[in-house]
Amino acid sequence: MTLENIADELIVLKGQSEAYKLKRDEMYNKLTNSQLEFFEYNGYRFSKTKEKLWDALKKANLSDELCSQIYSDSQNEKPRYSTLKMVEIN
After folding, report:
1. Per-residue pLDDT tens for 51-61?
2. Is residue 56 included in any domain, yes or no?
3. Within a 10 A sphere around the Cβ of 28, how many other Cβ atoms?
4. Which of 30, 76, 79, 87 is most buried when burial is the number of CB atoms within 10 A of its CB?
């Protein structure tokens, strides 16, 4: 497989990944607006993990300031799955 072929496939997969992230956000917002903790469908359970994190932090008897800092940091954390950086250029 050539570099061009691999690059073409990466570009397609990157688009799918972005669409997946947007759809996850849409599901989270829908669950939040419906006041549901989770939704089960077709063998899958969709749940709001952000809420669970906040609840766990509060149960640990941490200060509100520390809970807010940990929660905020967790929202900005992005796992790195590979060492390849792909940036769209114009």
Report:
1. 678 788 888 88
2. yes
3. 16
4. 30
